[in-house]
Design goal:
heterodimer, A: alpha/beta, Rossmann fold, 7-stranded mixed β-sheet, 9 strands, 24% strand, B: alpha+beta, 33 strands, rod-shaped
Chain lengths: 279, 626
Amino acid sequence: MRSGCFFALQRLSKCLNSRQTFVNSCYRSTMALTQVSSNKCAGGFQKVFEHESTELKCKMKFAVYLPPKAETDKCPVMYWLSGLTCTEQNFITKAGSQLAAAEHGLIIVAPDTSPRGCNIEGEDESWDFGTGAGFYVDATQDPWKTNYRMYSYVTEELPKLINANFPADPDRMSVSGHSMGGHGALVCALKNPGKYKAYDATALAASYAGPRLDVLIDQGRDDQFLSASQLLPDNLIAVCSEKKIPVVFRLQPGYDHSYFFIYSFINDHIKHHAKYLNA
Amino acid sequence: MEMDGIRRGSLDVIPEEAQEQDLSRESTTVETYNVVSDRGGRTFQRFSVETDESLHFDPCETSSPSTTGAEDGNDDNDVFKNGKDESEINSIRNRFQGKVAEMENFSGHLEEIFLTVEENFGRQEQHLEQHYNDVLLTLSQRYDERAAALEEEKKGKLESLYGQLLLCGQALDTSKELIETAQEVYRSQDKRLFLKAVKAVVNRIEEFAKEEIDLTLSTNLEFNTSLADLSDVKTMMDSINAVPAPSAPVINPQMPNSATQTSLHVCWSLFSDDTVEYYELYYRPVLEDTPADSTCAPPESKVKVKETHCSVADLLPNAQYELWVTATNTTGISPASEKALYMTVPSPPVIKQRECSSSPEAALIRWESGNTNPVDSYTVEFSQMGTDGTECSITESIVAVPTCQCLIQLQPGRRYLISVRAVNIGGPSDRSDVVTVSTTGTFFYLLEDTAHPCLSISEDGFTIFYGDEELPISAMALDDSAFTRCVGILGNLIPVRGRHYWEVEVDGETEFRLGVAYEDTERSSYLGANGSSWCMRHILSPSRHKYEFLHNGRSPDLRITVHPVRIGVALDYERGTLSFFNVSLEQHLHTFHCHFQNFVQPCFSLDNPGALTVHNNIEAPEYTFI
């Protein structure tokens, strides 16, 4: 099941950050970053790096936007999880997030959506499974379980890497995403405080008990996946209502599932994150 | 009078002083001899208090120290040794300081009195000298006059006596000649000749004998001294003691700040030569609605005073009075002075607490005049309150406020004490009651005249109720400004462009609308249904809570999973936003974007029976204005 929506949440993990300083020093020596590109953007820099992932056992790229404020201060980090078939490039070229990020002083990290070039049988056969479709979960079965550990990558390895190499404030991070990435963001947030194996976002929400969340969801009303009943926001809303998880769900008339939709509402979302990250 | 008392009291001191100080006015020392009884005997102690606040104890005899510790500075060491309370010493010291201050004060008074006495003495001396000079001059004039008159008389008398003397001499000569002629005739030998001549001689002698010689003195030997008229000198002498009737005093125009609400302080002056025993001050109110020549002018009142100033009390506030003075002494009464117009100050205004509003940057204060007649202007005074609740000494004022309201620019996050005074020519009134304004957040009351008749408002003015019972049509007598369809009410937000924030508490069962509206929003339509109001609406459906964010009757489609029981409303004129928040979750719910052309008012309405409470003066949380 896909949760086809933007997803925003905060306070990803407290326990994760407590040992960060110690871990940072260990990683710094081993985790070499290679800069792939660097472009000045909105007063800061939009960069892409490549590194050898220990979780995914392959080379991974990620994009990082450094706002002007990052030259002097530590900035909070917003992780953006992209949707199916995307790479780190889609968000940074299409979403238009940099101006708002510069205004609010947020670092935005956009990882790739799956391991690539692992030569796993069938990984390139389907658009919604395998390459470009990691679903931000840890695979439990062969042949996928070695490489397809996207959940661990985005919640453990990548934050450590970012905190060690950039002026990031490890205590202030949030996660947001679109489509599959939105679902991934929800999973990351909801799963973190508990120990539940279930990856279904709706089920997770029903058993959530942890730090308070604040969720903003925008949904295009003319989304082809919504009309095809592949997205079931009503289930999520009902459960969140029952469990008192604060969600504002906005049905935006006329919008579809595309990056044009993202572009239209990215400012609201960055502001939403900034509210907590800069508090 | 106090001054009189002091003068009288001080008179006893003056002679002593005069002797000791050889009339030197420079000395302001007051000396008191204090007798302190002692076990061993009597010790005379001299307390000398000087103006420089130093206190000396000079025992005249070095006998055993006095045991009256409280009165005696010598015992200080013993006191410490005996372990007496330091506080006692302090209190003693304070008492001494008090006495020193009192004595200083007294010596100050004395100095003043010395000066006055000296001045008066000088004036009197001059006066006397002038008078005596006048008298002496008059007397010497009289003397000269009299002397001249006597001289004249003497001369007249002498002349007449001399004339008489001459006449006597002539008579003697004539008789001598006659005798000689007769003897010659007698001796004549010739009888014929004798006979011839004798007849003529006899005739001459007879004739001569007929002439009686007046031998009485032609002038009186006594000088005729008329009684001297010294009455004018007498009056002059008397006038040294008797004084002329005073001339009309000059009444001063009203001095600023000399009046109160019910009293006036009037001053006048006299001509320096006048001696006045007492003055009489007349006053009466000037009524604007009675013509000047009216016979039914209000009766005048009269006060008798000895000073050249007087306070008249029991007057009407904010009223004009005309006053005049006469001066009287033993000789008589002066003409009345010119009439002066004085004005009592107004009654203090009454601040309309329920119509005041504030924001972090400003406060709007409204008040009632408190006077029936118009006043000239108002003065608004405000001072900051310290964090410990004490009043800051600096009071700022806004003067010449023409109307009964004032917008005051303030600093955010402080507490202010604000009061108002009414001002006319007579001066400012007393302070009105003080209102406290804290600039933590936006503060407003609800405009009760806009409330729909079905809506009732709590005592404190912040909770509105919509009861179950239907009102009869008769009770629907509607105010023009009241809502007619929507059971709503407007707030009274301060007209300041900036940021405003308030919170509303509701329960899950109440259907409500809340937001902002222009003050002239249609009273016959629902909030949010038109272009002049923006509001959040809560609808209770059987299955769930529904929320709408209405403007022009349209709302975006959105779902909120947690029902907000406390809603924060943030209005930002500069950015043109109106945002709603779930306060307990710090969750943003919705933002309207609209550049409000005019000032808006908070609006609230209830769509089903229930209650809603407005929470005011809350500091806007940081997240509300990101």
